[in-house]
Amino acid sequence: MLLRYLLVLLVLLSALSIAACGDTEITISTQSDADASLSLIEIYTPVSGAVLMADTPFSLEYAVLRSSNGHHVNIQIDKQKPVKVNSLKGFHRMPGLPAGAHILRIVAHTEDGTATSGQGIVRIITR
Predict the structure, then answer these.
(1) Left, alpha or beta for 24 (phi > 0: left; psi -120 to 50: alpha)?
(2) Span 14-49, pLDDT tens digits
(3) Residue 54: which residues within 8 A CB-CB, separation 6 or more?
């Protein structure tokens, strides 16, 4: 427990020293980082909370920014059967949805179909 407190203190002191030096450089993780097994999936459109017209097709724009051995994604609407899309980024034409609240979920998968960690989720409403 003491070790945990010391590590937290060390991190805080490091952050303070960086802030004091005025260093504002941000490091973005890459696939070679230790945490590369965690997927980072962004859904650009529609944004969470968007209100769309019911029964009108729409475009889903997404990108898998980091994924261990990512090969394809599965896109799922509510609890329907997922659709396999052989691209880790881009646009995908979605069918019109009935009026109501819906959840869009994107999960990255390896070539053998194993889901990688993480997922992208947006909640939308159609009227």
Answers:
(1) alpha
(2) 544 444 444 434 333 344 444 444 568 999 999 999
(3) 96, 97, 98, 99, 100, 126, 127
Alpha-carbon span 54 to 26, nearest angstrom: 41
Which of 112, 16, 13 minimizes the C-alpha distance to 68? 112
CA dihedral defined by 87, 92, 95, 101, rounded to 10 degrees?
A: 90
- Residue 106: which of 64, 67, 69, 68 has the closest Cα? 64
Unique residue bearing structure tokens 């947006």: 122
User: 40-126, superfamily in CATH?
Assistant: Immunoglobulins (2.60.40.10)
The first and second tokens of residue 95, run together, are 């069918």
CA distance 127 to 124: 10
**Cβ 56 vs Cβ 125: under 8 Å:** no
94-116: pLDDT as tens digits: 999 999 999 999 999 999 999 98
- Ranges of each domain in the chain: 40-126
